[in-house]
């Protein structure tokens, strides 16, 4: 029995579209309305199995004898599998898996999903330790999909310092992937996203026989061209309420000059931003709830809850995997991370070339424990949601403070390279400083919220004297 799929939001930014020339792949990992504790760990080669057995369906996959270390954000409860989520390996290759997607009955009738196949719980563990480039990630995962099949529809992103590739599963065994243009970004909600596709391009990869499958089964509805979203995707009322509005909002943020319909099935997959994109921009988008529109759920009107927002109570964690091009390789990989609902958290730039992670991010308990960053963030979000107008300015100050101070720690650590002082221990020390800072400031934020909210409690009584 497999766990309920996770419904996430992905943003990809090419190196020429980012402010500092980094490649960035980012995703909200979303779950159900109830808490699902997450943790931040490093998986070392000696802790990797040589045979992988899926907890979902017991499928067995032999693995290479040696692998790379990598950061990971798995579930605390691994009853249904690891769900590693995302990470950066020791060669600065990043992977985020997965963006749950939609499909249609035409392809599922031809190539049904495979209950004994692989899925979201498995992908990072059996791919990321064994790849040396983003393209290698696509090829390894593609071969696994063809051999074992998958029981769900998903999108997976890979990056290295030069390239970003996005792969989408098609039916039970097929797949297609496209290299994201260096000067473009992608916003991918929970639907099949790849649109125009050239089978003859060096910037595309795909499963064996995919082009013939489309032709043989008359799957292309268009008179000209090959639009994979039209061929393998869905066009449902749920898409117009749950999926396309998120893409519309982010594209409007990065390209306000383009006027589009919020419910359009044909929003572009890759798009060039009107300005270069920062880490702060991506985090804001992945925390957003249609601010400054009539669709904001914190605004009372007839349509304020019509569309599913990006930041919401089901955010388990958000990661921005940044591979930098202007620094030495040993500090190029940055695993930006925040736990809990994004509207009331802040993101921390952890160095990825490490052997251990900070205690407050690593030792998350399955039960409530406010000393854990995951539980502390959920507490702040729960209280903040009760009166957004009252608490939002407190959070804005907190988030700016965290980002500024963490960037300062990161800058000072980067500068030590000039004195040849960078070691893994230095990086772990910097990570620990940022984690300690976060724990201290988040605890202060919660205290400020309690003090502020206490003055607004209904259960009070004022005497005339």
From TrEMBL:
UniProt-recorded name of the protein: Dipeptidase
Entry GO MF terms: cysteine-type exopeptidase activity; dipeptidase activity
NCBIfam families xref list: C69_fam_dipept
Family designation: Belongs to the peptidase C69 family.
Highest taxon of the lineage: Bacteria
GO biological process: proteolysis
Substrates-to-products reaction catalysed: an L-aminoacyl-L-amino acid + H2O = 2 an L-alpha-amino acid
Gene3D superfamilies reported in the protein's UniProt record: Penicillin V Acylase, Chain A (3.60.60.10)
InterPro entries: C69_dipept_A-like, Peptidase_C69
EC number: 3.4.-.-
Keywords from the named record: Dipeptidase, Hydrolase, Protease
